[in-house]
Amino acid sequence: MTATRRLAALLLAVTLTIGGCTSSPTQSAGAGSGEATAQRFQDTPLEGRTPVQSAIELSVKYARLSDQNAAMRQESQRLTVDNENLRQQVASLETKLKQTQKELGEANDLLIEMLTELNNWKSNILGFRGEMRQAAQAQLEALLKVLELLGGKTEAGAIQQKHAGMLTLDPNDVAVSSKLATPVRSEPNGTR
User: Alpha carbon of 53 to those of 40, 50, 73, 99, 134: distances in Å?
Assistant: First the structure.
């Protein structure tokens, strides 16, 4: 392909040279545009060269620029295809991102709901433990009264001090007390 262009450019240069193209660009009717055209080709000095040599050099430059143009067009097409592929990829990733954000929002709402239920459960359990302690205290007080009526000698102050740690309600206490887990093996008044 480049050989054909080079040959065409060489034939054009030879034709112009043989045909007698001797007018300079400054002598043409459009002197302003001729000067701009002449300045484009002024990158190498033309003194001491024949028109044929200049035509050959220009045809070589034309062939090189044609090759560069073809390569740039291929690169442009490749970049266009890559750009289109990236656009499609971005579109699919945007839909996946929206779906993921939606699922994340739902999961966040579910976690908030679960946290609320956990806090409610914790307050219910702590409240129930408090009620159990109050019931145990009432039972102990009733047992002390029964024992006193039956004629047993009890020191209510000593028993209350002994069981004060077990009967006080501490709402910050989350762990199960080991004192509640151990059964009482003897009667509060010392009899078996």
Answer: 17, 5, 30, 68, 116
Domain ranges of the chain: 2-98
Query: In this predicted model, what pLDDT tens digit does every residue of 123-141 receive, in sequence order?
Result: 888 878 888 888 999 998 8
**110/37 Cα distance (integer angstroms):** 74
Model pLDDT for residues 165-190, shown as the tens digit of each residue: 555 555 555 444 434 444 444 444 54
Residue 117 makes CB contacts below 8 A (sequence gap 6+) with none
CA distance 182 to 136: 14
Q: How many Å apart are CA 137 and CA 123, to the nearest integer?
A: 21
Cα separation, 180 vs 128, in Å, equals 14
